Amino acid sequence: MTFAYEIPLLILLLVTAAGAIMVKDLMSAILLLGCYSFFLSLVWAWLGAVDVAFVEAVVGAGLATVLFLLTLFGTQPKDGRLRRPPPPMAAVIALPLLGVLLLYAAKDLPAFGDPTSPASVHIAPTYLKQSYQDTHTPNVVTSVLMDYRSLDTMVETVVIFTAGIACALILRRQST
Amino acid sequence: MIRPHDSIIVQSLGRFLVPVIQIFGLYVLFFGQYGPGGGFVGGVILGTSLLLTILIFGHSASRSQLAKKVLHGDGVGMLIYVGVGGLCLIGGGEFLNYANLDVPGLEVAARRSLGIVLTQIGVAVDVAVTAISIIFSLSAQEIIEDSINE
Q1: Is the ipTM of this complex over 0.85?
Q2: Relative to the CA of B149, which of A60, A110, B22, B88 has its CA 20 to 30 Å away?
Q3: A63, A78, A93: which is the final residue of a domain?
């Protein structure tokens, strides 16, 4: 494992995420969020999840940025508050504790790519072995999504359809 | 109201880039069985290319008519997807079990491959239409009213 480009990648991820929260101009915040999505897609690609990286790059960095920009054009482009209200005391105490707890729990997770982890001994080997004979589809991700788990994908499609319909119902009012 | 973009550079680049993006979207859609990609990403790319025509050439240009037509296609993608499931039912099996697609001359694995292609087209149509529809809802009242009143 080389550490030539992974550490800078993660640092950039943190910097863009923090910048998107901190910056006052909302347009800059949206563009920083797009950069964040792009770096996140590089991280996915580095972890070997190429399909997820593709979706993140196209949807997160492309389409979501456009949606945010269009929303911004309909609202106020600046954060008008002179000074941000300080975060509540409970959040200041609870969130670092939660972070410590998560780091503590992360120690028990199986190592990355561990072949004996619970996720990769249950049914994944069957998919990996049988996918090509069953469906003539070399990309196992596609065959799992569209064939073995087709009903789930159908309901996902229903969710997207519902989102479009709901946006149309709320936003396309006749302006009388 | 989205007017045509003034700059000649943007216009010429758009004339060149939009077909390239559309072909890339189709490639991603149908290459999803062999590499990264698939219906979702392909649909987003196709929808974005149609949006690009509107943003560059304005909504009354002849190039933008396809995108405005597509706006009426809400639910077509769902219909394709569920229709494939219904064809499996007609073929005598479970819902969305593509092995029961009644296509003569194809073995079971090839039928399932065909089912994957068809459902991916359904997902792509659904996602593309939804992307265009949401962005139209957010951006331009007049386009909606024009295309409804036509």
Answers
A1: no
A2: B22
A3: A78
Query: Cα–Cα distance between B115 and B130 in angstroms, integer?
Result: 23
Q: Which of residues 46-85 of A touch B (CB under 8 A)?
A: 50-51, 53-55, 58-59, 62-63, 66-67, 70-71, 73-74
Angle between helices B39-57 and B8-31 (to 10 degrees): 170
pTM of the model: 0.85
Q: Which residues pair with A25 in a beta bridge?
A: A78
Listed by start position, the domains of chain B span 8-149
Q: Please give the single-letter amino acid code of residue B82.
A: V
State the Cα–Cα distance between residues A127 and A142, nearest whole angstrom: 11
* Nearest chain A residue to B127, by CA: A160
Which of A41, A59, A78 marks a domain boundary? A78
Query: What is the domain count for chain A?
Result: 2
Q: What is the pLDDT along chain A (176 residues), one digit of tens a residue?
A: 556 778 888 999 999 999 998 887 888 899 999 999 999 999 999 888 888 999 999 998 888 998 888 888 777 666 666 677 788 889 899 999 999 999 999 988 888 878 888 878 888 888 888 888 888 888 888 888 888 888 999 999 999 999 989 988 888 776 54
Chain B: give the shortest CA distance to residue A14, in Å.
Answer: 26
Specify the pLDDT at position B46: 92
